[in-house]
Amino acid sequence: MSSNRLSHWYPHAGFVLVYVLWGINLTSMKIGGTEWDPLVFNGLRFASMIPILWVYTYFYYRSHSLKPRIAAGDLLLICGLGILNAVGMEAMLQYALQFSNSANGAVLGRGFMPVITVVIALFARQVRPTWRIFVGIPLALISVIVIVSGGAGGFHLGADTMKGDVLLLMRSVMGAIYLIGMNRLVKRYPLPLLISLEMTAGALSLLPFVLWRADAAYFAAISTTGWISLIYTSLLATALGFSIHNWSLGRLGPFKSSAYGYLLPVTAAIAGYFILQESISLYQCVGGAGVLTAMYLVQRDRNQAAKPAYRREPAAGL
Asked: For residues 301 and 197, what is the distance between their CA atoms, to the nearest angstrom?
């Protein structure tokens, strides 16, 4: 295999790695994350990465002899996406699950995001309608429903979960908006600057909740396992995960990138099997096979051109 052909698969491999990290993170949250208030956890998660990200950004710009410039409109966009990610996606997901269940969260909160993204992309003529799209996306969604439908607490719709389900669908809409907005930015600016600005905006939006809900006694009550969960989520699942995610996003575009979200129930089940010794059901095996088949169909669609890496554009501002 030639080096050019091999490099074509790097962003695809990047997304697989991202969803492995995020699948493990769900298991990590089951082990230690239950000790934390969701808003405090996410506030500390974003804030703890800011010094590391900005130091890396400084040396990145210095080594490439660049100046950190960004247009005012793009600065507002990346800060808005940071707040959308921290509050509208992460915090809303945890809040919505108080009124629904994890199975509905997997389907409505994450599973519908690629569907919404492809609808927007089709209307905006960013992708061409092909049989692989119309087969692959529904197949992936149905497969996720199969994965989470086995046993008690499986996927279902009803009056008892209506409030949470509406919030979960809103989360999917926000996720699609995030992908489309970030796709515009990663083609124009270096990734370290975007990640640093995004995480800073997210941390600042959650800071009031941290100051309000946490004190010395609260932190003292957190076990070592709880702190390890926070460290894993901050450094690997968020800092590394979002960096690889947005790098791959800039090369594949929002549509193909969103389709990889269907891997999360698969990687989460595998992580639970190896780390928590959870069993893997026939539902999960059949659904996992369906997800992988759908991923193959969508990613092999030749009509969806890969997106170029960012191009540096002179811009006034920061």
From this structure: 33
Helices and strands counted in the chain (H then E): 16, 0
Contact 126, 182 (CB under 8 A): no
Q: What is the pLDDT of residues 128-184, one digit of tens each?
A: 778 888 888 888 888 887 877 765 556 667 777 788 888 888 888 898 888 889 888
Residue 294 lies in a domain: yes
316 has a pLDDT exceeding 50: no
Residue pointed to by tokens 């006694």? 217
Least reliable range by pLDDT among 9-13, 102-106, 235-239: 102-106
Per-residue pLDDT, 292: 84
| In a domain? residue 226 | yes
CB 149 within 8 A of CB 271: no
Close Cβ partners of 126 (under 8 Å, ≥ 6 residues apart): 253, 254, 255
Q: Rounded CA gap, 227 and 145, in Å? A: 33
Question: Is residue 44 scored above 60 in pLDDT?
Answer: yes
How many residues comprise the chain?
Answer: 318
Neighbours of 10 (CB within 10 A): 11
Structural domain count, the chain: 1
Q: Which amino acid is at 100?
A: S
What's the CA gap between 255 and 140, in Å, rounded?
14
Per-residue model confidence (pLDDT) at position 101: 66
| The two structure tokens encoding residue 95 | 């809040």
161 and 104 in contact (C-beta within 8 Å)?
A: yes
In this structure, the number of other CB atoms found within 10 A of the CB of residue 275 comes to 13
Domain around 8 = 3-299
Residue 313 domain flag = no
Query: Is the four-CA dihedral 208, 212, 216, 219 of positive or negative sign?
Result: negative
Tell me if 145 is assigned to some domain.
yes
Provide the pLDDT for residue 1: 53
Taking residue 224's Cβ as centre, other Cβ atoms within 10 Å add up to 8
